[in-house]
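Bumping with the actual sequence this time:
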Amino acid sequence: MATPAAASDWIRYWDEASSDYYYHRPATGETSWEQPDRWICGEGYESEDSARRSRAGSSLPLEDEDDVDAPEEDLFVVRASLSGPPPLPAGGPPPLSLGAPPPLPVAAAEPSSAQREERRRRVLGEILSTERTYVAALQTLEKVYMVPMRMVADAGAKVAIFSHADLDTVFLNLDVLLKLHARFLERLEQEEASGHFGAILSGAAKDIKGCYTRYISNYAQAEAHISALASKAPDKHRYLEVCKSHPDAGGLDVRSFLIQPIQRVPRYRLLLEELLAHTEPGHPDEADLREALARIREVAAFINEETRVLEKSLVRQGRAFVREGELTKVFLFSDLLVYGVPTGRGYVQKGQIPLGEGTRVERLPRTEHLTHGFAVVDGHGKGYTWHGESEAETGEWFEEVQRAVAILAMVARKTALEHFTAAKAGCTLIKFNHRDGRSSPRWVRISADGSAICWGDTKSKECKSMMALSKAVALMHGAKSAAFYRAQGAKKDRDWLCFSLLFRGRTLDFAATTAEGLFTWYLALAALVGPRSSEPILDEEALRARVAEMI
């Protein structure tokens, strides 16, 4: 028997346009596509049981009557009947303004722990596989382009296709990136079985920040240099085209390899975000992953924004960016310490501390309120106290600032005659074997008449070998020759202290043990070899600027 409609009941109507039912509540004027708890079909009350019975004689499939616990049962809504639309109350149906019928709700089941772990393992695998691909690409770049071009530049002849200046412009810091990522990949492979990548990623992000900032800052210049070769240096352009045909290059030109470090940091961020999304709360790796993601995001933000902002106000000839951190918000340059406070769009500079002119840096004793600190005292006696979050961080900052101050302070200006006299007197230099890159200390001096460079045992100070300087075809500053690349750590640790004399068929490669030694030897040799050098010769001001940039 039909039950009269109460004032709070809903009435079901048929919509021809959508071939679907909708519901209207006369008491409030509401309309809805969703089925209410109580509704009236025509003039009578229809329950879920009656709806079920109305389907029994229809052509619609009926759910299994025994399957009373089927979880999808509650998701079904009756959409049709054999008799067509229900009879309408007097006055016809109310106007329908609900838009298209909404899709049926689907219960979103939470993935199980096993499913999350499986997805997490897939992301870990992708991190490892893409890192292998990336390292392989950097190794191909080195093998196909960098090493052959370096060998050409090492020849030192004036007719050499490429100079070391070309290599510095195009491949700046790429050798450092390759070593960093080869070591990073090795650590990932060691932890492949455990799947605990968080600590490794977090530690690598710190190294990535410094290396990538320098590379990306130079990228536009490298691109412009390569683009100019086609019109200004067709022989160099043809050489690069020949390299592209190398079997290992896969037909990719040098630009295709140079762009990959630019693309890698955003990829790290996306992979870390996905990995964290599939890591269970409380997982042993969770905290490390969050820290790693925060650092990678900071790297991306730093590369995209802060470097651009800083360049507008802090660029000066010879000034090189060294370090950035959270002492307050501090940016360390080779001759300047800049500090500021954060704003919504970046940082506002609050002050600068010149690192020359008598500036000194001192460690502070540990106190109850200052556990990790040091002081920078400028040339006028004004002191600035800085503290870090940890002993390790504070120690790194102290050493970096102290090193910058020491370099500016220790190299007093000398005349050309003073440099030449010191080189004739001799000193200990680190000599690198041009065949295998092995190094050892040697006593080195210039002959009394300035015609030869001699070297021998450091104890006896007797010179057992010599080369005539008249046969030298170039002088280079920095660890650029093949001998330095064969030596482990020379490029990273001693780059700015290194210099090479190029002869036809070989090189003499040295590293000074002090900044003063570097200036003495480079400037003395520049006076003797410079006029016929196939590589650009730096005067004292240019050498100071270059050293400051490299440090």
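The tokens above came from a reply further down the thread. Residues 42 and 87 are 5 Å apart (CA to CA).
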